[in-house]
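hey so i finaly got around to running the thing on tRNA-dihydrouridine(16/17) synthase [NAD(P)(+)] from Agrocybe pediades. pasting the sequence first so u can double check i didnt mess up the copy paste, my clipboard has been acting weird all day
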Amino acid sequence: MAKDILPSLAQADAQVPKKKLGGYEFYREVLGSPKYVVAPMVDQSELAWRKFSRRYGAQLIYSPMINAKMFVDSTNKTYRNANFDLINGEEGDPTIDRPLVVQFCANDPEQLLASAKVVEAHCDAVDLNLGCPQDIAKRGRYGSFLQDEWELIYKLINTLHVNLSIPVTAKFRVFPTIEKTVEYAKMLERAGAQILTCHGRLREQRGQNTGVADWDKIRAVKEAVSVPVFANGNILYQADIDACLKATGCDGVMSAEGQLYNPALFAGIGHPIDSPDYDSDEQILIRHPRHADLALEYLDVVMELKTTTSVSGIKGHLFKIMRPGLIRETDLREKLGRVKIDPKKVKECLGAYRVVCEEMKERMDRDAKAAEGVPLKDLITVEPITGIKVMPHWLAQPYFRPSPEQKKAYALANAPLEVAEGESSVAVPVPVSPQKPKRPLDDCEPGEDAKRVRLEQVAV
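ok and heres what it spat out for the 3d tokens, dont ask me to read them lol
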């Protein structure tokens, strides 16, 4: 009799829905209390990059931003498969791609819910993008250009909160005042967001006007809500991660561009910053491996996956990872830019990229060998405008844009002195207009439309 009952009990137990966790329960029990998070980035946080990043200490990774309006259109199979490939079954696979948060941009609750339902079983949470500051977001009415439509935002988040079996999270930018930023964050929490990621920049802070993220506003958000908060902004080196966590009190740090240029940003992060060997060659190379080696390893990951990686995504990653070398080896930069690959035969054509990376490796190994005997810490220099340290050019490292204020201050401080008329012993600085900054090498590849490439590569 008991044997007859057991199967039915097992079946009944299997049909009982799992408890939907939220807040810190979700953060701890499902995500594993992540502190080091890779941001959602258009065409740059794809499956291959996510798998690659986990090797170097990333504990939680977001998918690229997906447009819910386009994703929900079942006739647009090309867009759906390119943004979340359900056919090959690797995206969201618990063995290689978890924990994972899938991010959408949207302005229609029904479209957002329908899109989220497609990926619901393949991720741990769905995130709403409220931070994208690009013109394309303005035209599409999503991202940070929704931040004045609180009623709509509430409905978008609450619809997912009520109807999904997994949590909803939100990533947003700050307002000019702490008070409005805090009220905004509280509204997102009331709507049902179980984790908040606060990007400490205004909507207007982008491109050459990116400027510095405001950690004080992030801290105010953290202190005002009861759900976990991730801080986003100003992360270039591991020391910045420690400083950010202390300054904001946040549960984790999310990195976008910092991790793109140095995928080992989170590697070996448990090693104490104040330890005597922190600046030893061994420890520096853990945090800043040789960039050509990283580029070749990334190509290996692309090759081993069944899921196709976009051509623009691959090229964007290679330009970013190897940027310190490409600035010097301009012929390799041109060669990398000229590589053309059939999107339908990516793996068959990857050899063309590999040739450039291997050439770069030979030249960087040459330069590293020439510096043998000198500790790496003694080869670190300082960028004069920002005061940020620069690693030897064969190592992976962040790329940073001096703000207009920094450029003006530097130009004024270094202006040539001119003797004032009639005052033979008095010198006054001659104002010098800073030169218009050159377009970053990786933002405009030869033969490609700069605006499109910029939109593809920007972190949102």
